Amino acid sequence: MALGNRYKTAPGAGTLAALILVLVFGSPWYVDWVNDNTNPATAGGWWFRLLSWPRWRIDSDDSLREILVTDLRAILVVLLTAVFLFLLPGSQLARARGTVSQFFAGWSAYVFACGFAALLTTLFLANPSLLGAFQSAGAGATYGLFVGWIIGLATLGGRRGTR
Question: Is residue 146 assigned to a domain?
Answer without folding.
Answer: yes
